[in-house]
Amino acid sequence: MNLPKKVIITGKTYTVKGDITRIDSTGCTYSQAIMIGTKLRSDERTFENFLHEVMEIVAVERLHRYSEEDDSDGSIFVMNHNQFYNYVIDVAAAIFPMFKTK
Hints:
Elements: E1 6-9, E2 12-19, E3 25-28, E4 33-37, H1 43-61, E5 65-66, E6 76-77, H2 81-95
Parallel strand pairs: 2-4
Antiparallel strand pairs: 1-2, 3-4, 5-6
């Protein structure tokens, strides 16, 4: 799968890099970088990982993610329906440019 080199998330430009040596993926709001591990991953799983990072960054930027002090998989995502609507708009805005339209 060809990952985009950059993606705009909540108005900020993030650099996207694939790493064929890793299976995990990470996103960092501080450095505005996303790393997608592609080792042993199908295109579908690679896209899922990319989408996961985009969605989590939107949740962090919009203050919908709450986590434990050590962040050991204890994250909770909280939003009402109006916030979810805006969340969907932010995610769609980040992903839509990657799709070819007529």
